Amino acid sequence: MQGVEGDITNRASRNLPGFASGSYLTIPTLNNLQRIVHAFTTRNNNLGARYRGTKSPSDWDVVADLFNIKADRVVTVNQVHGDVVVIVDDHSYRLMHTREADAMITSTPGIAIGVETADCAPILLMDPTVPAIAAVHAGWRSTVKNIVRKTVMRMHDRLGSDPTQLIGAFGPAIGSECYEVDEPVMRPLREAFSFWKDVASPRGNEKWSLDLVKANRIELLQSGLQEKNIHSLGMCTSCRRDLFYSFRAEGRTGRMLSIVMIKP
Fold this sequence. Notes:
Blueprint: E1 4-5, E2 24-26, E3 36-41, H1 61-67, E4 74-75, E5 85-87, E6 103-106, E7 112-117, E8 121-127, E9 132-138, H2 140-144, H3 147-159, E10 167-170, E11 180-181, H4 183-192, H5 196-199, E12 200-204, E13 207-210, H6 212-222, E14 230-232, H7 247-250, E15 256-262
Parallel strand pairs: 4-7, 5-6, 10-14
Antiparallel strand pairs: 1-2, 2-3, 3-15, 6-9, 7-15, 8-9, 8-10, 11-13, 12-13
């Protein structure tokens, strides 16, 4: 399902105050959720750009304005391509920028959790019932470490979420047509997934095309999510460099933020 571009006069969600046209996308079906809001930023209006690749503390102030919260309640972690899932709450959110992790979960309203990407698959999980949410950064290393499956389990064990009721949303990620990998990636992929042939196809010369989104989608299904509850923007970061940053295509570049929040 394609996303909707945010616009000041024709907002992607009437619950979100719009900012500069085209600066964020949403998945239309999920705009109807009463207690949870989400957004996927773009590179439009220079949002998420980095000076010489360096992150700035004020990078996401505009996103805080979007969600009508204080800037320090937009929470990110130090992403390290691992499988650590951390719990964010009113006592810990100010320290999260120092934590090494690749997924966050919370049931605390008014804290927006997000992951930064420029090709890796960003995954937002939403439980409107508890309510509870998660933000997952899934590059190939985290994917083969079952990061999204571990996040679903953590939501169930710590926050009481029923996997069959969870909603999954994939943001912009590199598509298989642009994501070529070699044996150092394929070896752990084969070891991790019995379904590896469904997400990788040979290109010749010991090169493969890898579908990161599909791999994590299968993981979500095997974790108990219903297929009807899994959504995707369906946009390739490398193909759409007019709209997104792509590390594979550009080298050192900016980042998009995929973010979700339970309304205060």
